[in-house]
Design goal:
By secondary structure, the protein is mainly alpha-helical. Helices cover 62% and strands 4% of the residues. It has 7 helices and 4 strands. The strands form 2 sheets. A two-stranded parallel ribbon has the order 1-2. It has a two-stranded antiparallel ribbon with strand order 3-4. Helix 3 runs antiparallel to helix 7. The longest helix has 32 residues. It is elongated, with a radius of gyration of 24 Å. The two termini are 22 Å apart. This is Late competence development ComFB family protein. InterPro entries: ComFB (IPR019657). It comes from Pannus brasiliensis CCIBt3594.
């Protein structure tokens, strides 16, 4: 699908799906240079998103139940350690390390999440404990590899718009908007 077709569909339907958004990004990333028509389409899409004429559809909501189980285990074990240690532990680092060694347990409904929690308690609890213990050992007995690292932050709406603006600007190096005429 072309950018123009995606934008026309978004304007017609009033929403931009995650797959439409991904396709626009793919076209922008793979195109050597976008045409003036493509720039105009992107400009129309940006304006429609800013005014609310087109809304971005949220991605499907789901959770990884393993995350909450690992975080609970990590907090419990870290609390035990911190009671006699002088340094506090980074639960995010510990959980990420453990989660990279465990199977995901995704769910899209409360019933599915309850099923996954029960399954984990019955079949995976020892594996979770072991992965969290390994993560704690790693962080307690190994030096910090990169003390200047920057944590991941959730982007705000403004950050997303700024990123989209930068993407459009980087692909529109030679594009100069002209005043709207009778054909626009």
């Amino acid at each position: 699908m072309s950018i123009k077709e995606i934008v026309e569909q978004a304007l017609r339907e009033g929403y931009l799906t995650p797959s439409m958004e991904a396709e626009v990004g793919r076209v922008c990333d793979t195109a050597g240079e976008l045409s003036i028509e493509e720039y105009r389409s992107l400009d129309r899409l940006m304006g429609a998103l800013l005014t609310g004429e087109v809304v971005g559809m949220p991605r499907k909501q789901f959770i990884n139940v393993m995350e909450e189980l690992v975080i609970a285990e990590a907090i419990a074990r870290a609390a035990e350690i911190e009671s006699f240690a002088k340094d506090s532990l980074d639960i995010g680092d510990i959980a990420a390390y453990a989660l990279n060694r465990l199977p995901p347990l995704y769910a899209t409904t409360e019933e599915g999440a309850s099923y996954q929690r029960q399954r984990a308690r019955e079949d995976l609890q020892e594996m979770i404990r072991s992965a969290v213990k390994e993560a704690l050992d790693r962080f307690l007995f190994c030096p910090v590899i990169n003390p200047d690292r920057v944590p991941i932050a959730k982007p705000s709406r403004e950050d997303t718009l700024t990123s989209l603006h930068g993407l459009l600007k980087s692909h529109a190096v030679n594009y100069e908007p002209r005043p709207a005429g009778p054909l626009d």
